[in-house]
């Protein structure tokens, strides 16, 4: 990085101290769920991220939307048919059902959490 003579690079150092049972580094999906799980199990948790939780790291820009379908048999069947076609029919229904169930449960849990 080049600076001209009139610019100054100022480095401010802050003396702060935090204490927690668990330190999670990274606010992507894995980090967020690790923090939620630790808190749910009684730990005090600090989660640090270089940006805003959920908007940094590889996951945010990768376009991997959430497959959040309410537990309606017809809606889930249509969702699975659509994904099967998009994936060249290389999927297994039992795993698709598991993803639909777990995603619905987990997203609701996240929405209800106090973190």
Question: Which terms would index this structure?
Answer:
two-stranded parallel ribbon; elongated; oxidoreductase activity; single chain; 3 helices; oxidoreductase; FAD-dep_OxRdtase_2_FAD-bd; mainly alpha; 115 residues; FAD/NAD-bd_sf
Strand content: 5-15%
Average pLDDT, all residues:
84
Number of domains: 2
What's the SSE pattern?
EHEHH
The number of distinct β-strands equals: 2
From the N-terminal CA to the C-terminal CA, the straight-line distance is 38 Å
Task: List the uncertain runs.
Answer: none
Total helical segments: 3
Q: Please estimate the helix content.
A: 40-55%
Class of secondary structure makeup: mainly alpha
Strand order of the largest sheet: 1-2
Shape: elongated
Cα-atom radius of gyration: 21 Å
Task: Outline the biggest β-sheet.
Answer: 2 strands, parallel
Protein name: FAD-dependent oxidoreductase 2 FAD-binding domain-containing protein
Keywords: Flavoprotein, Oxidoreductase
GO molecular function, one term: oxidoreductase activity
Domain FAD-dependent oxidoreductase 2 FAD-binding: 21-112
What does this structure look like?
The protein is mainly alpha-helical and 115 residues long. The chain folds into two domains: 43 residues, no CATH class; 50 residues, no CATH class. The chain is 40% helix and 7% strand. The protein is built from three helices and two strands. It has a two-stranded parallel ribbon.
Q: Brief description of this entry?
A:
The chain is mainly alpha-helical. It has helices spanning 29-40, 73-86, 93-112, and strands at 22-25, 45-48.
């Amino acid at each position: 990085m080049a600076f001209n003579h009139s610019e100054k690079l100022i480095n401010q150092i802050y003396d702060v101290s935090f204490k927690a049972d668990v330190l999670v580094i990274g606010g992507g999906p894995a980090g967020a769920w690790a923090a939620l799980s630790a808190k749910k199990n009684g730990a005090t948790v600090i989660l640090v991220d270089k940006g805003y939780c959920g908007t940094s790291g590889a996951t945010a820009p990768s376009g991997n939307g959430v497959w959040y379908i309410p537990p309606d048999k017809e809606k889930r069947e249509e969702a699975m048919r659509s994904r099967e076609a998009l994936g060249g029919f290389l999927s297994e229904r039992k795993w698709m059902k598991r993803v639909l169930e777990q995603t619905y449960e987990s997203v609701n849990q996240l929405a209800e959490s106090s973190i």
